[in-house]
Amino acid sequence: MALSLTSFSSNARATSNYNYKPDEYVVVNNGLSPSGRYSIASHGEGELGYENFHIYLINARTGKKIGPLEEIEGTLDTGASAFYAKWSADSSLVSITYRVDRHVAMMIRYRIKNGRAYRITGPTKVDQLKQ
């Protein structure tokens, strides 16, 4: 699964934060699976969304959260636009790229099976982001 960091170029200089409303889950870039069955969304609480911030696997048809992707932690950003999902054509695999520092991106890969996300690899450092 190849991944381009081009989507991060505009975000490499600034922090992307979001003040979430209660029960508001925002789908990340390319977060809807090709099958339309799942989505990857962000949610946090408090000022700038840093309190209890998580990335979630969501049932896209019902809007119900399946659960947090606990392995995604230490993120610099809380805004959904700062996260990038890349799905396999059959919606069985997803990689999620996010920043842990202004110039450092991490990627983690999950297998989606039986309505759950199972970590395959990562978090792994992707690349040094350019200023």
Describe the fold and architecture.
Helices cover 0% and strands 49% of the residues. The chain is mainly β. The protein has one domain (25-128). It is globular, with a radius of gyration of 14 Å.
Sum up the overall morphology in one term: globular
Order of helices and strands: EEEEEEEE
**Strand percentage, roughly?**
over 45%
How many discrete structural domains? 1
Main sheet record: 4 strands, antiparallel
Residues in helix, %: under 10%
Determine Rg (CA atoms, Å). 14 Å
The residue-averaged pLDDT reads 88
- Number of E-state strands: 8
pLDDT below 50 for ≥5 consecutive residues: which ranges? Answer: 1-12
Individual helix count = 0
Measured between the Cα atoms of the first and last residue, the distance is 25 Å
Structural class comes to mainly beta
User: Could you give the order of strands across the largest sheet?
Assistant: 1-2-3-4
